Inverse folding.
């Protein structure tokens, strides 16, 4: 069994903190301690774990990605979102989290982000929770 988290992203590029929503799903499961797999089934949207205390970190990540992979470039993919596909490949489409006592084991400043590169859209995150 897996859970589906639906997120409406607000704009073309957005990093949406989903940490609390993932923890809510873990807390509702029957599993107290284990592994939580997160998978984003989209080619222009990814997932990452990074600092969620200082918003300038996310801004810096976005700025560097946009500098390295501009929206307008010499791309063969002509739908206008080639940059989003490349950014998603670099960020990744999955994350693995450990949790104990229904709490995600993150560092002090860490959070889980859905990384939108071609929004706004409704996105899904599939979540699989396993005991260990």
């Amino acid at each position: 069994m897996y859970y589906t988290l639906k997120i409406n992203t607000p704009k073309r590029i957005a990093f949406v903190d989903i940490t609390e929503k993932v923890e809510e799903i873990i807390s509702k499961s029957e599993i107290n301690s284990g592994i939580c797999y997160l998978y984003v089934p989209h080619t222009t949207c990814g997932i990452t774990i990074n600092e969620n205390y200082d918003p300038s970190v996310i801004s810096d990540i976005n700025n560097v990605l946009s500098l390295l992979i501009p929206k307008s470039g010499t791309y063969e993919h002509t739908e206008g979102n080639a940059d989003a596909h490349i950014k998603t490949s670099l960020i990744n489409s999955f994350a693995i989290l450990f949790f104990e006592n229904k709490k995600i084991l993150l560092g002090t400043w860490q959070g889980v982000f859905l990384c939108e590169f071609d929004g706004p859209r409704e996105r899904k995150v599939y979540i699989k929770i396993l005991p260990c």
Q: What stands out?
A: Residues 3-131 form a domain with the Jelly Rolls fold (CATH 2.60.120.460). The helical segments are 19-28, 55-68, 82-91. The chain has one domain: 3-131. The first strand starts at residue 3 and ends at 8.
